[in-house]
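From the pipeline queue, job 12 of 40. The input is one protein chain; the requested action is below.

Action: predict structure.
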Amino acid sequence: MMFSWINFIILILSTAIMALFYIKSVYPATLSQKIGLKAFSRCAYYRITASVFELITVVNYLFYFFLPLPIPIPQFFIWDYWISILIAIIILLPSLYIMLKGVKDAGREALFPDISHTLYSGIYEKIRHPQALGEAFIWLSVALILNSPFLFIYSIVWFPLFYWFCKAEEKDLVVRYGESYIDYKRKTGMFFPKKINEKVVNRDT
């Protein structure tokens, strides 16, 4: 029982620390106004640190399967395990594709902020945050694969967190790219493709 609570506490802490460092990592342009171009390398360090704690969180998820909390939540879903796997696959495949497509189209910028990087192409021409969209749903898939109602409920926390990350990042991208990013926001959806008003398109062309 003690190890279950230790794992849970580490899960909470690793999630919080991951969020803290990721938020710090999305402000390279804003930080560069204070400390110059070294802000980009510092934000890359923050993002790598966030990734390490996110990996620790994954490990906590795995440990929870063997060390569930002694709380009045069923350890497993009430349906057969194959149903959990089926739902997990249905969620995981498109989520993983969207996330990996975002990583591919972002290139090095996905992990290492680069002052010379231009606005993204590919999937980013349709939505602004494919990586966040895909990753948020992947956590639900992991919980389903582990057949854990508690982890499924816990995974909901990633949705407001990733939304917070995206809103914070966009503030810095406005600082970084100026009017071109504001125009890009107007033409694209945050997480889902945006239907552009035909008059707006005609005016821009």
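Job complete. Confidence is low (pLDDT under 50) at residues 197-205.
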